[in-house]
Amino acid sequence: MTNRWLTGLVLATLLASPMAVMSALATPACSESENGWVPTRYYARGAVTFYRGDWYRSQERHEGREPGQGAFAWQRLEAPPACTADQDESAPRPDATTPPDQQSQKTPRIEDKQPQTSGTAKVNCPEPPTWSFAGSYNVGDQVLHEGQVYRAIRQSNGTLPGSGHPPHWQLSPQPCRNMP
Hints:
The chain is an alpha+beta fold and about 180 residues long. About 15% of the residues lie in helices and about 20% in strands. The protein has helices at about 1-25, 95, and strands spanning about 40-45, 50, 55-60, 60-65, 75, 135, 140-145, 150, 155, 170. The model is unreliable at about 20-25 and about 85-115 (pLDDT under 50). GO terms for molecular function: carbohydrate binding; hydrolase activity, hydrolyzing O-glycosyl compounds. Keywords: Signal.
């Protein structure tokens, strides 16, 4: 009876081992050298990076936030992530590494353009919305903060106008181009 039990255990181990090896080969661990953190890279939500001996997953789209520094931007992973060719969330997306100001911009439609005026005619120019910490802003968006108008020069998720490094906002002298 003991021999049958031992034989069954050995057989089960031998059958399980190839499956474990095949499973490990099917989902290879990410390469530390290919996924090293780059401070100037834009990271999409879900992207993974290796930094100072640990793996991290991006919690939001951002640029230049250092992993492991207490910021919400990164979550430390307990084990190396599995990288597969079809895993969209772990591989950097083309737009995740290209600054928004260098990405292709949509061509404005004729009805999107404001009429040009000459002389001293007054133009109805709506005031931009007030900046909000909870807001998500794209390149070119304008906001009002402490009486000043700011224009986003890179994507911003809660970065206060006039602060942050690298800067996300630029002081805009006029909220509209067509104002005298």
